[in-house]
């Protein structure tokens, strides 16, 4: 049926091997069956090594069987399938599988006809992704940039897989810093109730109020009282708070607009105020809070060594980052009915999230059997000197300036290639932006997120190697092939439907098989949320495409340059390549351009 066609060769093979193993060895779990693409075409396209773990399991049960015999027994149960051309036992008991050509061709056509849509998920999940989450009145820094880029792309991927994704911006908008900010605002703009002041440079405003807080006892007292009034939602204080949040929000939005961050819903810590009150009542009733020198703390389920408790209520009665996260976790599970909750936050906060999980289990908010929770951590951003990413004068880098510099460098790059003589000014600007933001995102996403990440414009804007600029060039080149061939996508689809596809050349074949791994790669990332796998795949597609293109004519021309022959099947292969690349770019949040 249709869904079968949408499954990748690996999935189909896995399914039929699972069936065969369960017939030959009903006592072994199906998890022993895995199929991996082979690195050497001598060994076919995929390899199944299930005979080895089965041999181990039998041995443990006191039975000695040669793995080659086991492999043969599996093959005896393997039903004939259109997927495979040939199956062979090799070496110690490996099963090598060769894919059937016409099957691969059919799959490729169906990729094109179905717009590379993955099969619908077995169960559509409600997924909450918490990312970006900067703090009001503070500058959004490179850590927030990483969280924004990674979170956006993980959300795109899960949505693409057919899930229901809620993207939440857990803005820090309710901390104690608001006491001093409000008190300072009241002094600086006494008329703030009637005329909305423009707070202007929030950074400076924050610093000024901090200095007063640290040096002026009277101010400090007022600041502390202001927090209490704010958390009690006294209208005047709420109004002042809103003014400050609005000013920040405008700054954040500028960054989001530039980076095409569109579906992110703002739901800051303040959202949970009433829920925090309820939670604390509930925990008090259940006798879960312990008194610790005036603070109320909550210990987690597992009291491991080095375990730290959550501070739920401070000695002055206020709530903390811990309180709002526990409330938010509950809200996401109970009210949003989240099946899966994801946090994209820097690695430095991993202990906090471990405690969150532990505490949430302790008070019955979270059951790991029912809800999946992932802390998606990422390493710190370093400068090219391998030290913490800073400006030359040692200040934190402003994101707006960083993006500006990216665009400036991308423009230079395009001018070096004389593109400004070909493109209109508008096109040049659009291309420079797409390149700059694309390169920044790609450089981030293509690194294993668990490692530290060295930010280097020179590297990310290199047009050779695994960079967005190389990939975007490759993509526009491929798109221009079908433009030159003057074959409309609908014509190509019609050809697929009516005649199907035939591939002969070894390089066509190689490219086709790489393209058919798309779905597997997405499945795999759904398990471990490592976006660099998609970048590796995208790069492999581009490289394999150029191998194909160097060896196979798509369009033939006479001496005068006139087109004499168009190879329709190859143009279809070009279009499927472009389609898959486009989907990857979309998931990664990278804009494509039609000319560059
Ligand atoms: N505002 C926090 C920070 O800048 C990040 C919040 C992450 N999300 C969360 N639910 N704690 O460090």
Distance between the termini: 41 Å
Radius of gyration: 29 Å
- How much of the sequence is in beta strands? 5-15%
Biggest β-sheet strands, sense, barrel? 5 strands, parallel
Are any ligands bound, and if so which? arginine
- Determine the fraction of residues in helical runs and give it as a percent range: 40-55%
Dominant shape: globular
Which residues sit in consecutive blocks of at least 5 with pLDDT less than 50? none
| Number of continuous helical runs | 22
Adjacency order of strands in the biggest sheet? 7-6-5-11-12
Mean of residue pLDDT values:
93
Number of strands: 16
> Which secondary-structure class do the elements indicate?
alpha/beta
Detailed description of the structure:
α5 (101-113) crosses α22 (568-588). It is built from 22 helices and 16 strands. Strands 7-6-5-11-12 form a five-stranded parallel β-sheet, with helices on both faces. Strands 1-2-4-3 form a four-stranded antiparallel β-sheet. The chain has helices at 2-6, 9-24, 51-60, 67-77, 101-113, 142-160, 177-188, 202-215, 217-231, 235-258, 273-285, 321-334, 350-362, 399-416, 425-445, 457-460, 468-485, 489-498, 506-515, 518-528, 532-551, 568-588; strands at residues 35-37, 46-48, 84-90, 94-99, 126-130, 164-169, 265-266, 290-292, 295-298, 310-313, 340-344, 372-376, 381-382, 453-454, 555-557, 563-566. By secondary structure, it is α/β, with parallel strands linked by helices. It is 52% helix and 11% strand. The radius of gyration is 29 Å and the shape is globular. The mean pLDDT is 93. The structure holds arginine (ARG). Arginine binds at residues 130, 133-135, 170, 172, 325, 328, 343, 345. It is found in: Cytoplasm, Cytosol. Residues 11-99 form the Arginyl tRNA synthetase N-terminal domain. It catalyses: tRNA(Arg) + L-arginine + ATP = L-arginyl-tRNA(Arg) + AMP + diphosphate. This is Probable arginine--tRNA ligase, cytoplasmic. Pfam families: Arg_tRNA_synt_N, DALR_1, tRNA-synt_1d.
């Amino acid at each position: 049926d249709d869904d079968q066609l949408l499954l990748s060769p690996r999935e189909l093979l896995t399914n039929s091997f699972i069936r065969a193993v369960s017939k030959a060895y009903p006592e072994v779990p199906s998890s022993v069956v895995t199929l991996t693409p082979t690195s050497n075409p001598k060994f076919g396209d995929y390899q199944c090594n299930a005979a080895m773990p089965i041999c181990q399991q039998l041995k443990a049960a006191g039975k000695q069987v040669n793995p080659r015999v086991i492999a043969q027994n599996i093959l005896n149960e393997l039903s004939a399938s259109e997927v495979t051309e040939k199956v062979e036992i090799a070496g110690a008991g490996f099963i090598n599988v060769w894919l059937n050509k016409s099957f691969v061709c059919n799959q490729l056509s169906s990729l094109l006809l179905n717009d590379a849509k993955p099969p619908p998920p077995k169960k559509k999940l409600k997924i909450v992704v918490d990312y970006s989450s900067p703090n009001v009145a503070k500058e959004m820094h490179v850590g927030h940039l990483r969280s924004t880029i990674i979170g956006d792309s993980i959300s795109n991927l899960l949505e693409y897989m057919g899930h229901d994704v809620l993207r939440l911006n857990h803005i820090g908008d309710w901390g104690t810093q608001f006491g001093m900010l409000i008190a300072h605002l009241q002094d600086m703009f006494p008329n703030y109730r009637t005329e909305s002041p423009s707070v202007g440079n929030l950074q400076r405003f924050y610093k000024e109020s901090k200095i007063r807080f640290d040096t002026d006892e009277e101010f400090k007292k007022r600041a502390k009282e202001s927090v209490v009034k704010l958390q009690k939602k006294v209208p005047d204080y709420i109004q002042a708070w809103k003014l400050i949040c609005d000013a920040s929000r405008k700054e954040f939005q500028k960054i989001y607009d530039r980076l095409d961050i569109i579906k992110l819903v703002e739901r800051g810590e303040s959202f949970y105020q009433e829920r925090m009150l309820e939670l604390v009542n509930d925990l008090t009733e259940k006798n879960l809070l312990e008194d610790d020198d005036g603070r109320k703390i909550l210990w987690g389920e597992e009291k491991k060594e080095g375990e730290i408790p959550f501070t739920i209520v401070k000695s002055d009665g206020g709530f903390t980052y811990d309180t709002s996260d526990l409330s938010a976790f509950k809200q996401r599970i109970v009210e949003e009915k989240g099946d899966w909750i994801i946090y994209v936050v820097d690695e430095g906060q991993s202990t906090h999230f471990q405690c969150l999980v532990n505490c949430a289990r302790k008070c019955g908010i979270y059951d790991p059997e029912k809800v999946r929770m992932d802390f998606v951590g990422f390493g710190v951003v370093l400068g090219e000197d391998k030290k913490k990413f800073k400006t030359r004068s040692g200040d934190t880098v402003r994101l707006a300036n960083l993006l500006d510099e990216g665009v400036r460098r991308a423009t230079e790059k395009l001018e070096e290639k004389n593109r400004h003589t070909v493109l209109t000014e508008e096109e040049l600007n659009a291309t420079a932006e797409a390149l700059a933001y694309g390169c920044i995102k790609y450089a981030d996403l293509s690194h294993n997120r668990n490692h530290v990440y060295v930010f280097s414009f020179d590297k990310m804007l290199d047009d050779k190697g695994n960079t967005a600029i190389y990939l975007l060039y490759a993509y526009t080149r491929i798109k221009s092939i079908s433009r030159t061939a003057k074959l409309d996508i609908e014509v190509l689809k019609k050809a697929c439907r009516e005649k199907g596809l035939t591939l002969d050349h070894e390089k066509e074949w190689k490219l086709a098989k790489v393209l058919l791994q798309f779905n597997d790669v997405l499945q795999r990332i759904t398990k471990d949320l490592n976006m660099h796998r998609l970048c590796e795949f995208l790069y492999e597609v581009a490289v394999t495409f150029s191998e194909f293109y160097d060896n196979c004519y798509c369009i033939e021309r006479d001496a005068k340059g006139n087109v004499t022959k168009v190879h329709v099947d190859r143009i279809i292969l070009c279009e499927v390549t472009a389609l898959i690349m486009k989907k990857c770019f979309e998931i990664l949040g990278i804009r494509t351009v039609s000319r560059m």
